Structures are given as C-alpha cells and as structure tokens.
From TrEMBL:
GO terms for molecular function: DNA binding. This is Helix-turn-helix domain protein. InterPro entries: Cro/C1-type_HTH, Lambda_DNA-bd_dom_sf. It comes from the Bacteria.
Length: 123
C-alpha cells in the first residue's frame, strides 16, 4: 500500500492541481511527482516538509500516519456566518462573513479529537 502516494494524489486533486503544477512548485520534474504517487520513489524530508506546507496538512497526514480530518458540513459555515458576532465583525472590517466563518472553522477542534473536551465541559 502506498499511503503517501494516495494522499498526495488526493490532496493534489482537492486543490485542482496537475502533476505539472506540483512539480513546478517544488522544482522537480512531473515524472518525479508521478513516481511518488505510484510509490516508485519517495521524496526527501525537505520535500515532504514543502509538500505539507503547500497542502496545509501535517507531515503525519501527508505520509498516511494520521487520518485526514473530516471537513465540516457546509451548513456549519452557514450557521457560523450568521452568528451575531461574526456579522458584526464583518460589518466593522468589510471582510465577508463567510470568510470569517471559514477562518474560525479552521481552528475548531472536533470533540472526538480532544480528550480533555470530553472530560470537562469548561473548555
């Protein structure tokens, strides 16, 4: 099983990138990216770090050592964007409420990933 290659391909598709695009970002040949995705070759640690930064994922997730976090449902963003404080902030800053909601959602920790959250409702 080539977890890294599968993850790289999934992340690349999620961002709408081609192998050529990823290769250009990293300064490698397209065939190198193809070889990573097929499991023929593995990138260096420096390249893995660049890839994790490019795709906004941890190294653990990139190499398949951690399960990807499930995306929040679209309805969550709609509810968050209609929150009175988000609406007020949007008016005061001229930043769209949806953008503010997406920013806030990026820092949400699913309760299932937070052991202390289950132990204490004060968090």
């Amino acid at each position: 099983m080539n977890r890294f290659g599968e993850t790289l391909k999934r992340l690349r598709h999620r961002m709408g990138l081609r192998q050529n695009d990823v290769a250009g970002m990293l300064g490698v040949e397209r065939s190198t990216v193809a070889n990573w995705e097929r499991g023929v070759k593995q990138p260096s640690l420096d390249t893995l770090i660049k890839l994790s930064e490019t795709f906004g994922v941890s190294l653990d997730e990139l190499v398949g050592a951690a399960q990807p976090t499930a995306p929040l449902p679209p309805a969550y963003y709609q509810v968050l964007a209609s929150d009175p404080l988000v609406v007020l902030l949007a008016k005061r800053t001229s930043v769209p409420a949806k953008t503010i909601a997406a920013f806030i959602a990026a820092f949400q920790i699913p309760e299932s990933n937070c052991g202390k959250c289950r132990q204490s409702k004060k968090l």
